[in-house]
Design a protein that fits this description.
Distance between the termini: 19 Å
Order of helices and strands: EEEHHH
Largest sheet: 3 strands, antiparallel
Oligomer: single chain
Structural class: alpha+beta
Length: about 100
């Protein structure tokens, strides 16, 4: 899958076998105020699409622990343009991503 940010507060993505891009609307996540937060969520979604593991709860706990110990580089080595969103916004974005299947 290809996942990228949009300037309108959404995330554009293509699923396997689909030529048409879909948009993940994040405008209702009012606490996302920095484009770096959206970029961070995009990196999380990319990782989830590649290797979805475990339940949403365990995934979020693991991600939070990883950020606490290793910083934003836990999702991408070049994390200069990323900003940390709250776990609630990450969960909200994952909840809106209908093509992701978790346990």
């Amino acid at each position: 899958a290809v996942v990228s940010t949009q300037s309108t507060g959404g995330v554009s993505y293509n699923t396997e076998g689909s030529e048409e891009a879909s948009t993940l609307d994040l405008t209702a996540l009012e606490q996302l105020v920095e484009v770096g937060q959206t970029r961070f969520i995009v990196e999380v979604l990319k990782k989830l699409v590649d290797k979805p593991q475990g339940s949403l709860s365990s995934l979020l706990k693991s991600l939070d622990a990883g950020i606490q110990s290793g910083g934003l580089g836990v999702v991408k080595d070049d994390s200069n343009w990323l900003a940390r969103p709250r776990i609630l916004e990450i969960a909200g974005a994952i909840n809106r991503y209908r093509h992701l299947i978790l346990e």
